[in-house]
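Hi P.,

Sorry for the delay on this. The queue was packed all week, but I finally got your sequence through. Input first:
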Amino acid sequence: MRVALQPATLEGDVLQHYRDTIEKPVVFDDHADVLDPAVLSNLHRLFPEGRARMWGVTPGDGDANVGKVARLRAGDFVLFYGRGVLYLAGTVALRWHNRALAARLWTYDRRPVPQTWEHMYALTDVRQVQIPIDEVRPLLGWGPRAVVQGFNIYDGGKAAGLRELCNLALPDEGVLDEGTFEPDALPPPHQPFDGPTDGAREGAVRLEQQQFKRRLGEIGGGRCALCDRPLPLSLLVAAHIKKRAKCSEEERLDFDNVGMLACVFGCDALYERGYVSVSPAGDIMISAKVAEFTEVEAMVQERLKGRRTSWWTPERDRYYQWHRTHRFLRML
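Then the structure:
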């Protein structure tokens, strides 16, 4: 899936637009008079509650944005940028063109020949992130001063890097070590597998892993840092609080603070995928996203709701803070 970068600094008109159509979802039937019936029908199908968060893009000078927006498809991701950070992530549910609706929602911009944000899209799974542009530049091959200056769409390796950085999960995507998943390599759905089941693969080896887990076992006393159940060390994962691939060499060797023990009975996966995190006070944070899955919600409510982890310390919080801003599914 592609990833779009959407410049939208939250000040002036942009801030008001954000409040009107992102913080406050747009009610479809309020605008049925200017919505194409097919678009209205699709919106109701995708959002049975009858409202959705919406944004748009102007045609741009010389229609520079028109071809870019035309590449945007349902399932693609959009990252909003302003004041040096990516601050919002969402998934495109539907894209359409509607000048009248855009003008009603957002009026017109201030260029000599005014334009409105008529190339519109509705977003689902909208959540807050806080990712500095410094972490984005190397993924896109940018220089040290580059910023998001216009609407652009990325695919291939650049999109994969952005998805991994911002924890943007593809449907049915597995989580492989160090974000090596490449969706373009997947076979078409339902295609029979007829290749060999074993193969050779070259890759980096975590040379510190055994010592890392041994040290966490000494610190943690054989208990899961999240659910606090006492378990054999073989059923506890030496988990990195901050994703190992994003740690410096110095951080990787900070055994006492960068890691925690998480059980294989769900806690490790919930933390890795961002369904839970740890607050600046050590409380277990639970994403609203868990409510979409009955069994997951039941497990989280039973084991983690209202818990405070004894693993939290001020020294570890800088690693937990990375997880809160990069991985946690903080839904809007």
